[in-house]
Amino acid sequence: MNNKNLRIPKRIKRSDQIVESVKRWVALNKVQPGDRLPNERELMEQFECSKGTVREALKSLEVQGLISVRTGPNGGAILERVPYDKASELLRNFLHFDQPTGPEIYALRTLVEPEIAALATARVTEADLEDLDALVKRCEVAPKTFEERIEQRIAELDFHILLAQRCDNPMLAFIGRFLNDMLRDLLIFKKSALPEQLEFSAANCNYHKQLLEAIRARNVSGARKLMHEHMKSAEHFNHELEGQLSQHFLGATNS
Amino acid sequence: MNNKNLRIPKRIKRSDQIVESVKRWVALNKVQPGDRLPNERELMEQFECSKGTVREALKSLEVQGLISVRTGPNGGAILERVPYDKASELLRNFLHFDQPTGPEIYALRTLVEPEIAALATARVTEADLEDLDALVKRCEVAPKTFEERIEQRIAELDFHILLAQRCDNPMLAFIGRFLNDMLRDLLIFKKSALPEQLEFSAANCNYHKQLLEAIRARNVSGARKLMHEHMKSAEHFNHELEGQLSQHFLGATNS
DNA sequence: CTAGATTTGTTCGTATGTATC
DNA sequence: TGATACATACGAACAAATCTA
Fold first, then answer.
1. How far is the C-alpha of B216 from the C-alpha of A80, rounded, in Å?
2. Domain residue spans in chain A?
3. Mean per-residue pLDDT for A193-220?
4. pLDDT average, residue stretch B16-45
5. N or C: which end of chain A has fewer CB within 10 A?
């Protein structure tokens, strides 16, 4: 009754065939973002199927973030670059039943953030430097309220996210942004149980200031080194935090 | 005419609402993989919509890899862990218009593989060790044919993929596997233009042998160190390769 | 092995909403 | 404002897959 048979669909679904066809077409013909796909009627004729089936295929492509669909004249499906949010959402789903813990996220961050800092140093613009400066300044003053404390932590993460976005290597950029997004979610999720950690905030703020200086001076190896120290420090404080939390709520070290 | 207006859909689609509802339900009620969703009829009643709309929502969830759907009695939609292949495919789509180059992949690999080796060392089973040994042995003999050469390279990557799968940290495991998959694709895609690189193969095989010994001895720091050297070496050879390729096909250093 | 029950999969026709011209 | 072209949604009917007796 409950034995796990291998699921080998005898008949591949029509709509999936259409999805594959469109993907091949995009890959082979070097279709660019913004180019239009054939409209529903043409697709119906080309694949000899009904409107509903075409719609299902388009829906599938839309869910994957590959196209966007607009109504009206000159509407229809157009090819899109997959937006970061889509990719992020889908990777989150993958991790849903293996929720990364704080220490796991920090472990990965320690590996990638130094390289992100190094790559970003060569590419940030003057405007970026101003934005980074504004984010640092927001963390300088001592937080008065609970909300302010959370906001400062988020500003810290935004500092890292901006660097990740300026990073040349697309995969490194994605991973960096994703990790900081995960921390942001974790922060918001269990913020009510979060102790103050004044030292942590001060250390972060200090590192960010030094990092900003190194980046402004286009000092690549300096930025890499600083970021590594920063991550080691953050990892340490997170370890401390997890210890405190598990004292309060035994067995609640995860998620 | 062609100005990029922000797309702010005034009316959120009915099927997307259903998707969000189901996701919330899964997150809040701690639904486990294997649990059944309500069938189409019940969903129609619950959301007061037609069969087509329910099907569209289910399709969306299926594309995201969150459910699988079967026909027949006891059929219907059941919650699934998102399989690696789905997540991998979707991340590939995200990177489609920013195809990572060889050097970019190697740069990331150098960062993560040493840690993967360290984490995996503590967790590989005896059976895994045998599999790893078999993969190493496949690369020991000198390749006679062109196909054999490619197969050996793939066996090398499988070595890394197995380690990644045994890795404790789910994100690190995913990234490691994904990077090696990308290299595999790159290899197959431009294999016809691939020069022999005897030194490279020999170096890889040697490193893998030493790694296997370190892992068997559960020597964590040794495995980490060896893997780092291995990656540096591979990065170097890849750099050499890219140089050769760009001499042959000027301007074809990418993809 | 067959027949029937159950549930998803596909199609058609129609109606409605919405953005562009 | 109205016409047009397209996506969105509904309902009914039928097809196909799969389990059970």
1. 48
2. 12-79, 84-254
3. 91
4. 94
5. N
Comparing CA positions, the residue from A220, A39, A25, A21 lying closest to residue A114 is A220
Distance (Å, whole) CA B255 – CA B247: 15
CATH architecture entry for B12-79:
Orthogonal Bundle (1.10)
In the predicted structure, residue B171 carries a pLDDT above the cut 90: yes
| Cβ(A229)–Cβ(A110) below 8 Å | no
Check if B111 contacts A (Cβ < 8 Å).
Answer: yes
Distance in Å, residue A59 CA to nucleotide D11 C1': 21
CATH topology for the B84-254 domain:
Four Helix Bundle (Hemerythrin (Met), subunit A) (1.20.120)
Per-residue pLDDT of B145-169, as tens digits, reads: 888 999 999 999 999 999 999 999 9
Task: Examine the pLDDT at A207 and tell me if it is beyond 50.
Answer: yes
What is the residue type of A125?
Answer: T
- DSSP letter string, B70-99: E-STT-EEEE-PPPHHHHHHHHHHHHGGG-
Question: In which band, very low, low, confident or very high, does the pLDDT at A11 lie, cut at 50, 70 and 90?
Answer: low
What residues of chain A lie within 8 A of the CB of B67, using their CB?
none
Distance B79 CA to D20 C1' (A): 24
B positions 152-171 inside 8 Å of A (CB): 169-171
Give ∠ CA A116-A117-A123 in degrees, rounded to 5: 90
**Model confidence, pTM:** 0.88
